[in-house]
Amino acid sequence: MTTITALLSRKSGEVSTVSPDTTVFEALELMALKDIGAVVVTEGDKVVGMFSERDYARKVFLLDRRSKETKVKEIMAKEIATVGPDETV
Fold it and tell me: CA-CA distance, 88 to 86, in Å (whole number)?
């Protein structure tokens, strides 16, 4: 069975994170730079949410909000499931 570590090692090898106070625009810039569709939102070592292109499309663009003024914490997904690196797919 494939572990999460093995699965992620086939990808870029790093998980991109932002803080809850990062603007949506800054998060989108990072996602474009890394060619990824989502980032993990962290406070220190604690995962507090996820922000994705879908969050942007549905909660910023379609509602005519301003990405340079909206904070990630205002629209991120807060209820997320996590697994450890040794868990199997």
Answer: 6
C-alpha–C-alpha distance, residues 24 and 73, integer Å: 9
**Sole residue written with tokens 């994170």:** 17
Q: What is the DSSP string of 21-45?
A: TSBHHHHHHHHHHHT-SEEEEEETT
In this prediction, residue 68 carries a pLDDT of 96
pLDDT in tens, 6-33: 877 776 667 899 999 999 999 999 999 9
Question: Which residue matches tokens 């570590």?
Answer: 5
Short-list 49, 54, 63, 10, CA closest to 31: 54
Query: β-strands 46-52, 17-18: how paired?
Result: unpaired
Beta bridge partners of 2: none
Nearest to 72 by CA among 44, 45, 38, 46: 38
Tell me the whole-structure pTM to 2 decimals. Answer: 0.83
